[in-house]
Structure formats: structure tokens, C-alpha cells
Amino acid sequence: FDAVVLAGGAGRRMGGVDKATLRLSGERLVDRVAAAAQRAGAAGVTIVGPESAAADGCARVREDPPGGGPLAAVAAALPFVQHDWTMLLSCDLQQPVAVCETLLVSLREGDDVDGIVLVDQRMRHQWLAGVYSTRMLRRGFEVLGDDHAGLPIKLLFAQARLREVPVADAIAADIDTPDDLAQATRLNLE
Questions:
Q1: Chain centroid to CA 61: how far?
Q2: How far apart are CA 177 and CA 190, in angstroms?
Q3: What is the mean pLDDT of the chain?
Q4: What is the pLDDT of residues 99-130, one digit of tens each?
Q5: Does residue 29 sit in helix, strand or coil?
Q6: Distances (CA, A) of 144 to 22, 62, 72, 158
Q7: If residue 74 lies in a helix (H) or strand (E), which one and from where to where?
Q8: Is domain 2-189 in CATH 3.30.930.10, yes or no?
């Protein structure tokens, strides 16, 4: 599998801060997620975002238009994907290692599905904590066409057969606000 780390968000709830470059226990968020994907066995990792999100050992590309949202980011990364499965990860996951491990365990179960997506305790799909058939992702973009900037990412999965994997909110949590970062820092130190 290959991994795509989405790092081009505006960080509005963080006061416009580039979340990819925020630090948790001394490590940039984007580096934590990229390293978790690499440790999980990703053959290649592509980061989609500004130059500030670049990480060692990873390809980097910018979505078109910049800030165009997750669909634009995935579309920009797909030319770099070479394997049958693509793990989509947000750069601000609080527990990227647990997310990657959970996805891989589920993928190895071998069901006939187009992808696996984590679902939190409130039954919200965590689209950027999932692993998907690369073929299905490409088909999804064929259906959506080229004008997808700003559209919700769930449209990409409208025709997909997905296995939903329920997880605790703590596993699916990301870092959207200063309070989230403070909580993640506390948990990381315990």
C-alpha cells in the first residue's frame, strides 16, 4: 500500500496556524503521521500541502487549487500512488500509529470491499483515517470529473463497498483546536 497524508488545510479553528507544522512532544504533526505510515509498511508516502509540510523520505505535491479541500488533495496525490491500496490520513491525527495499525489489521481480514474507514463512537466516518482500493479512488474521480474543489470527500465513496471499523473517539481524534493540542500533549506525556 501507499499512504497519502493530507496537510493542506487552512487550520481555521487553530487561528489559521499551519497544523502540519505544529509540534506534539517535539515532533511536527505531519512527521508523526508520515512516520506512522512508513512504520506500518507504506511503500511510498505522499504529503499533499504547502512546502512547509514537506517531510524526509516523502513525496510532496500541492492540491489544485491550493486549499481546494480533501478531494483536490487526493486527486493531486493519486499520480504518485503505485500500489493497489491507498491509506488516506489527515496530518493532524492524535494517534497515527493506532490508526495505521487498526486499518492494517482490518485490511488483512481480506473481505471483498473497496475500502476500510474508521468510524468514531458518534458514528461519524473518519474518511481521512481509511485505506481504500486505489482502483476505486480513481474510478470515483472519473465519476466526479475535474471540478471537485470544495466538495465533501464522502462523494468519492458514494458507490464504494466500505467496511466500517468502529473505534474509540480517542483513536479517531484529530487536532483541530488549541484545546485538542493541549489534550494530545497531556495524553502523550502520560
A1: 14
A2: 20
A3: 92
A4: 999 999 999 987 799 999 999 999 999 999 99
A5: helix
A6: 33, 20, 11, 10
A7: helix 70-77
A8: no
Question: Three cell numbers at 99?
Answer: 490508526
| CB 86, CB 127: distance < 8 Å | no
pLDDT reported for residue 14: 62
Would you state the pLDDT for residue 12? 67
Of 110, 145, 150, 152, nearest to 131 (Cα)?
110
Of 97, 107, 122, the C-alpha closest to 27 is 97
Q: How many helices (H) and strands (E) does the chain have?
A: 6, 9
pTM given for the model: 0.94
In the numeric block, the cell 512527521 is attached to 31
What residues does 88 pair with on adjacent strands?
A: 4, 130
The two beta strands, 45-48 and 59-61, are parallel
Strands 59-61 and 125-133: unpaired
The beta-strand segments (E) located in the chain are 2-6, 23-24, 27-28, 45-48, 59-61, 85-90, 115-119, 125-133, 162-166
pLDDT lower than 50: segments of the chain? 190
**To which residue does cell 491500496 refer?**
85
CA distance 46 to 134: 14
**Per-residue pLDDT, 190:** 47
Residue 174 is classified by DSSP as B
